[in-house]
Specification:
Blueprint lengths: L8 E5 L4 H12 L3 E6 L18 E5 L12 E4 L6 H4 L3 H22 L2 E7 L26 H21 L3 E6 L2 E2 L10 H11 L3 E4 L5 E3 L1 E2 H12 L9 E3 L4 E3 H12 L5 E4 L14 H7 L7 H15 L4
Parallel strand pairs: 1-2, 1-4, 2-3, 4-5, 5-6, 6-11, 7-10, 8-13
Antiparallel strand pairs: 9-12
The chain binds nicotinamide-adenine-dinucleotide and uridine-5'-diphosphate.
The site of nicotinamide-adenine-dinucleotide has 28 residues, from α1, α3 and β5.
Length: 319
């Protein structure tokens, strides 16, 4: 039902996940009504349990590969497993979530004339041959490899967003999110920051895949959420795609050393085989984000890691 007040009703799919739960929190702080939709595939109720007492927050169990009939003004479409371990566990479902999920959420946005934002990814650039990556780069993606279910699913979702925009005049926003970390990452998530911190805190070996010379640029979650909300607030003629991430680039070996130093861990570093199609380098060019969102990240790697280590220390009972 349309509300009679002026409160904006915002839906976050994947809202019980790592990024989604922080986004729900910030949207509530901004005064919005928030509908969090999630099938708890990789997210958990625990991530949003603290929001449940808020009367402006609603939690709905739903799989976005099926149609959804609700009434909202804005949609943030984040539903999709994001860690390679999780998205490769059931690759067919991963593609369905990106593609059918996009079709269902775009259909909903079309009926409601709602604004819709897609959580796309730096993975659309694949193993990039230009560096840093600008949004006009079309990418270098293997269509049949182990990462393809995620990369190609997200690329197809971008296609659908732009076709709905051209064909149905939908108001769309596409964010290409680069590696983001912070509290509420799942401890067994498999992504590098959570893996290294959990390993360091438990005194277990730190697992570097390959020789550790591959690079990533790590964005702290609060910066990322600010970027997404600013993107949603841009004028209708700005659709993106726009890179959102932190340009500070580190090798995986440097990250391991930094985590060991900050945790004071005695963990040793061990090497494991590099997974196939693992991108060699990744760094966002933020020119567009600076210009259109007046945004750039403010949390450097060290303070961001300290906050994340604090979170995992409490979670693992190490404080
Ligand atoms: P996450 O796994 O913590 O969150 C994804 C959420 O989507 C989970 O709560 C999960 O249960 C839910 N979900 C999965 N399939 C669903 C389905 N079919 N129906 C309903 N809900 C479903 O991951 P995250 O890091 O929070 O990522 C959120 C979004 O941001 C994803 O779309 C991801 O591709 C994108 N992204 C994240 C990063 C990053 O570094 N964190 C980088 C690039 C893009
Ligand atoms: N990685 C690693 N050890 C781990 C987990 C990941 O060396 O325990 C590497 C992985 O091979 C990749 C980088 O860290 O080169 C980032 O991996 P992640 O899964 O976090 O994200 P993505 O590869 O999707 O950027």
């Amino acid at each position: 039902m349309r509300s009679y007040g002026t409160t904006k009703r915002v839906m976050v799919t994947g809202g019980a996940g790592f990024l989604g739960s922080h986004l729900c929190e910030r949207l509530l702080d901004s005064g919005a009504d928030v509908l969090c939709v999630d099938n708890f595939y990789t997210g958990t109720k625990d991530n949003v349990a603290h929001l449940l007492p808020n009367p402006r927050f609603e939690l709905m169990r739903h799989d976005v590969t099926f149609p959804l009939y609700v009434e909202v003004d804005e949609i943030y479409n984040l539903a999709c497993p994001a860690s390679p371990v999780h998205y490769q566990f059931d690759p067919v479902q991963t593609t369905k979530t990106s593609v059918h999920g996009a079709i269902n959420m775009l259909g909903l946005a079309k009926r409601l004339k709602a604004k819709i934002l897609q959580a796309s990814t730096s993975e659309v650039y694949g193993d990039p041959q230009i560096h840093p990556q600008t949004e006009d780069y079309w990418g270098h993606v293997n269509p049949i490899g182990l990462r393809s279910c995620y990369d190609e699913g997200k690329r197809c979702a971008e296609t659908l967003f732009f076709d709905y925009h051209r064909q149905h005049k939908l108001r769309i926003k596409v964010a290409r999110i680069f590696n983001t970390y912070g509290p509420r990452m799942h401890p067994n998530d498999g992504r590098v920051v959570s893996n290294f911190i959990v390993q360091a805190l438990k005194g277990e070996p730190i697992t570097i895949y390959g020789d550790g010379s591959q690079t990533r640029s790590f964005c702290y979650v609060d910066d990322l959420v600010e970027g997404l909300m600013r993107l949603m607030g841009t004028p209708d003629d700005f659709t993106g795609p726009v890179n959102i991430g932190n340009p500070g680039e580190f090798t995986i070996l440097q990250l391991a050393q930094q985590v060991i130093e900050l945790t004071g861990s005695r963990s040793e570093i061990v090497r494991k085989p590099l997974p196939s199609d693992d991108p060699l380098q990744r760094q966002p060019d933020l020119t567009l984000a600076r210009r259109h969102l007046a945004w750039e990240p403010t949390t450097a790697l060290t303070p961001g890691l300290q906050k994340t280590i604090g979170y995992f220390s409490t979670l693992l009972g190490k404080t």
